[in-house]
Amino acid sequence: MLAKSEWAHLIPHQGTMCLLDNVVAWTAESIHARTDSHRRADNPLRSDGLLRAVHLCEYGAQSMAVHGALSAREAGSAAAPGFLVSLRGVSLALARIDDLDGPLDVFGERLLGSETSWQYAFRVEHAGAEIASGRAAVMLVPEAGVGSRE
Prior knowledge:
The protein has one domain: Thiol Ester Dehydrase, Chain A (Roll). The chain is mostly beta strands and 150 residues long. A hairpin with a 3-residue loop joins strand 2 and strand 3. The relative contact order is 0.20. The longest helix is centred in the middle third of the chain and has 19 residues. It has one helix and seven strands. It is globular, with a radius of gyration of 15 Å. The protein has a seven-stranded antiparallel beta sheet, covered by helices on one side.
């Protein structure tokens, strides 16, 4: 298990916006993270005192960021910053998540990875039951100067 202190500095999500608490396990193709941030009053995605299930897409996207950062670090580099550009096939089993006791398990599986984009499938479980799933795509920002015209 990797504590947040071992990887949080590698991703752009900082402070309370870093929604994942630890990495349970990861391989070259997948990640399993765990969190209790859905129950925290200072969760920045809350509105009107609620945290809606649609925000589980952000949890899935953050698992992608952590996986990409850990993979890059293992290869001796840093992950390029990126932008979430697409969500597909999203399925939500409930309307809100702030009232769930116990941690969320967040799973990401890399479907495609290149120098310009990543595509992942994600799944979020609570107490062993799937509460969200979908696919997400991220477009990576090329390094400064690479491919630019002067």
